[in-house]
UniProtKB/TrEMBL annotation:
MF term (GO), any: RNA binding
Signal peptide: 1-21
Species of origin: Medicago truncatula (Barrel medic)
Gene (name only): 11412791
Gene3D superfamilies: Ribonuclease T2-like
Name under which the protein is recorded: Putative ribonuclease T(2)
Enzyme Commission (EC) number: 3.1.27.1
Similarity annotation: Belongs to the RNase T2 family.
Length: 235
């Protein structure tokens, strides 16, 4: 009798220890990178882009990713291989996601495949804070809060294929949000540097922008082209 009680207690302790270790590893990130992408620049490159005819993509930055990150800049990946992406859990968000978190890759990739990939690779690393539904809803809320095209246009920076000082783009976003973003550029087929991605940092709850411990730097020159908005249909 005594032995079996001790044994069951030991089991419980082991289970508790296992669970807390799981929680600790799942919580192991310090902030999110919230990354938005300019479709005009993604499409204006040698890799080109592929997008379905409907829904019509708005002329806005779209969501590129919501990535749990550590203060040293490293990115935990694939944190829960037992998780299963479940479309039914985000059925209320699909329409919104189609417009705001599309796949632009060629050959055309179904958006649902992109979301599943993003959840498994990145989302599961914030599972201790956000459920699958929360994760996608959080990204959509952040996108709504951070309307980059509006911010830039208010500062006279428009997607007109012209070149702008990189510092004026950073300043405009910092003025509007209170936080310095990171920006990443790609090159058009003629090798011109163009604004592709904007990085902002968000606390682990997913609700507040914060000062970034560090941002990607160096892929843009002193001036960058803000390419016109277009996407390639029918491919
Ligand atoms: C795109 O392709 C052209 C032709 O092959 C090449 O000259 C150019 O360097 C490529 N641009 C980039 C950014 O790789």
């Amino acid at each position: 009798m005594k032995l079996s009680i001790t044994y069951s207690l030991l089991c419980k302790l082991l289970i508790l220890q296992y669970l807390s270790a799981q929680c600790l590893s799942a919580q192991d990130f310090d902030f999110f990178y919230f990354i938005q992408q300019w479709p005009g620049a993604y499409c204006d490159s040698n890799q080109s882009c592929c997008y379905p005819i409907t829904p019509i993509l708005p002329a806005e930055f779209n969501i590129y990713g919501l990535r749990p990150t550590k203060n040293d800049g490293s990115t935990p990946l694939n944190c829960d291989i037992h998780s299963v992406f479940d479309k039914s859990k985000i059925s209320d968000l699909i329409e919104n996601l189609e417009l705001n978190w599309p796949s632009l890759r060629c050959p055309q990739l179904k958006s649902i495949k992109l979301w599943s990939h993003e959840w498994m690779k990145h989302g599961t690393c914030s599972e201790s804070k956000l459920t699958q539904h929360d994760y996608f809803q959080t990204a959509l809320k952040l996108k709504k809060k951070l309307n980059i095209i509006q911010i830039l246009e208010n500062a006279g920076i428009e997607p007109d294929d012209k070149f702008y000082d990189t510092s004026s783009i950073l300043d405009a976003i910092q003025q509007a949000t209170g936080f310095l973003p990171g920006i990443v550029c790609n090159r058009d087929p003629g090798l011109k540097s163009q604004l592709l991605k904007v990085y902002m940092c968000v606390d682990t709850s997913g609700s507040n922008f914060i000062e970034c411990p560090g941002v990607p730097m160096g892929s843009c020159g002193d001036t960058v082209q803000f390419s016109k908005f277009w996407v390639n249909l029918f491919c």
